[in-house]
Specification:
Strand content of chain A: 15-25%
Distance between the termini of chain B: 30 Å
Largest sheet of chain B: 3 strands, mixed
Helix content of chain A: 25-40%
Helix content of chain B: 55-70%
Structural class of chain A: alpha/beta
Number of strands of chain A: 10
Number of strands of chain B: 3
Radius of gyration of chain B: 23 Å
Strand content of chain B: under 5%
Strand order of the largest sheet of chain B: 2-1-3
Largest interface: A-B, 62 and 60 residues
Oligomer: heterodimer
Number of helices of chain A: 9
Strand order of the largest sheet of chain A: 6-7-8-3-9-10
Chain lengths: ~270, ~325
């Protein structure tokens, strides 16, 4: 994986070998006696699109909670751009953007008011916040709706605003937790396209958690998480060769031993 | 659909050097973050008209109906800070301000549990600023809303003829009646100590009570907000909240000096009297009551400050990622 210098390199901070966007190494977590994650390791390089595949309850949300430092990892280490989330939480979180599965926007406020609030959470002054909000909305094709209330938007548009929200501070790592759940086909494709474009243009690392197999492209890196254990971590061709399956769906089924299709199960 | 790329000019303004990124976590960044959180609370409040109305109607019902009804049955004698006989309406006004603060605090606590379920709390907590700072900012946002509500109430009360008297001097008031269960361990003061701090310029005298009550409301609001924050971290689900309302709001409000002077309660039951004196809400009420009359009730002030610190520390602990209860419990839904 080559690390291409980002645009800020020209301002003087030339980084030749920058650490990956996300490194999760040997992370285990348990709630009481129930082990939710068992020795999970994965890496998201800058510019990589990593699909985290798993059924509901596989431990995806717990992994996201640990990376976003909702609670600390009990064992193992999580680094965002080389910053340990436990020891350097501010630096780590500053480089992280998240799209949560659940709704996070105030529906009674306008898009701009929502985004300005989230820019403030990252320390941007009012003027900066407004500019960044407008630019971020432009990024997801909703610039002309800035003054409207979130309530007036469709599900797919709300998702796009949330992607804009998570991109306002230009993170190096973007986490998305089941971002397409509940969206119709057209909106799903729109959301996926936006994020894939971002990966290509912004060289940011994306960890996309989903149970929808048809969202995987051949060029993606795939991590299969099942009952808290990483069963596979590698490219799609490797996954198909290893399992001898014709597609990702069959490969997933073969690896996890689940009878039902993952799409039906969810 | 089209997804416009960052144009060259947009990228230049949108991107930032690492030095700029670091500076976002400086003092200006903290201030911007604080302002953003407080402003969101106020905006949200202003967009919920029914919440504004219900917050205003609740204390007004107490004032117009309950207090008017009890005016004849409950005479309030001259006790500090009052220098003349006061109407019952005037007596319960500070208690009703405290009630506004209590309801507002519990309501924002409720919204925090709700936020946690929807994910709004999570977006707050992924901010790079320290979690204690984020929680304190959120708390102060709630207090700002409560302050607006309290003044809306005081405004209506003013037209009803209930207003603090003009204040010529700001005084320190200290009176401590040691609880009976403490035996002789705690010294008791038989007479209140009153010290004049400074005199108020004449043009400010009519408004001095309204000005003095602002810091009292903020402090009392912080204490109740911190308590609500702690409660929000202890509740796992929204459904459990109704019970908490019953077990927290009503006992706190009724077992306090909000509706009746404590000496009258002592005549009825010494036990109840002691319970009321263990209730931090009593001191929030008294702090506000004395402030409206230009006096700083030192004992109440000390207790409110201490309770705020205690509740806040417990709430920050509860929201602490490694020690806190969220981690132990399995986190918020989703």
């Amino acid at each position: 994986m080559t690390t291409m210098p980002k645009t800020d390199a020209k301002v003087g901070a030339v980084e030749t070998d920058r650490p990956p966007a996300l490194v999760v190494s040997g992370v285990s977590h348990a709630f009481g006696d129930k082990k939710v994650l068992d020795d999970v390791s994965l890496t998201v390089e800058r510019g990589a699109f990593v699909m985290l595949l798993g059924l509901n309850g596989a431990g995806k949300s717990t992994l996201f909670s640990l990376v976003t430092r909702l609670y600390d990892n009990v064992s193992g280490q999580i680094d965002i751009c080389g910053y340990d989330v436990r020891r350097k939480p501010s630096q780590a979180l500053q480089r992280l953007g998240v799209v949560f599965q659940s709704r996070t926007l105030d529906i009674d406020l306008t898009l701009l008011q929502n985004l300005k609030y989230h820019a403030a959470l990252h320390g941007y002054s009012n003027r900066d916040a407004k500019r960044r909000a407008e630019q971020a909305l432009d990024l997801v094709g909703l610039a002309d709706r800035a003054g409207e209330k979130v309530r007036a938007l469709s599900g797919g548009q709300v998702r796009r605003v949330e992607i804009a929200r998570s991109m306002m501070h230009r993170p190096d790592l973007l986490l998305l937790d089941e971002p397409t759940v509940g969206l119709d086909l057209g909106s799903r494709e729109g959301v996926i396209k936006i994020v894939r474009d971002l990966v290509a243009k912004e060289r940011l690392g994306v960890l996309w958690a989903t149970h929808l197999m048809d969202e995987v492209l051949r060029t993606d890196q795939v991590v299969i998480l099942h009952k808290g254990v990483v069963l596979f971590n590698g490219g799609v061709p490797q996954l198909l060769t290893q399992t001898g399956a014709p597609n990702v769906r069959e490969a997933f089924r073969a690896l996890t031993g689940t009878q039902t299709s993952i799409d039906e199960a969810a | 659909m089209s997804t416009p790329a960052f144009s060259a000019t947009a990228a230049a303004t949108f991107d930032e050097s690492s030095a700029m990124a670091r500076s976002r976590l400086g003092v200006a960044g903290y201030f911007a973050c604080f302002k953003g959180i407080v402003w969101r609370e106020i905006l949200r409040y202003l967009h919920q008209r029914e919440r504004f109305l219900s917050a205003l109607v609740r204390p007004l019902i107490w004032l117009f109906i309950f207090a008017a009804g009890f005016r004849q049955t409950l005479g309030v004698s001259i006790i500090p800070p009052y220098q003349t006989y006061v109407l019952y309406e005037e007596f319960i006004a500070p208690g009703l301000i405290a009630m506004i603060l209590l309801f507002n605090a519990m309501q924002s606590s409720l919204s925090m549990v709700y936020d946690r379920e929807t994910g709004t709390m999570r977006t707050l907590l992924v901010s790079p600023f320290p979690r204690s700072f984020l929680l304190l900012s959120k708390l102060l946002g709630g207090v700002s809303v409560a302050l607006m509500q309290a003044f809306a109430f005081l405004f209506v009360a003013y037209w009803w003829g209930i207003e603090p008297p003009p204040i010529t001097d700001i005084k320190l008031f200290t009176f401590f009646d040691a609880p009976s269960w403490a035996g002789t361990a705690l010294p008791s003061m038989s007479d209140p100590i009153v010290n004049t701090l400074f005199s108020v310029p004449s043009f400010l005298q009519p408004a001095a009570g309204y000005i003095m009550v602002i810091p009292a409301i903020i402090l009392a609001g912080l204490m109740l907000g911190a308590l609500a924050l702690l409660i929000s971290s202890l509740i796992k689900q929204l459904e459990n909240f109704a019970g908490v309302m019953n077990f927290v709001i009503f006992p706190m409000f009724f077992a306090s000096s909000a509706l009746y002077p404590l000496w009258r309660l002592r005549e009825a039951s010494t036990l109840l009297y002691e319970i009321c004196r263990l209730n931090p809400f009593t001191y929030a009420v008294e702090l506000i009551r004395f402030a409206l009359y230009g006096q700083v009730d030192t004992i109440s002030l000390a207790i409110v400050v201490a309770c705020t610190a205690l509740f806040l520390a417990a709430a920050v602990f509860a929201y602490n990622p490694s020690k806190g209860l969220i981690a132990r419990r399995g986190g918020p839904g989703g």
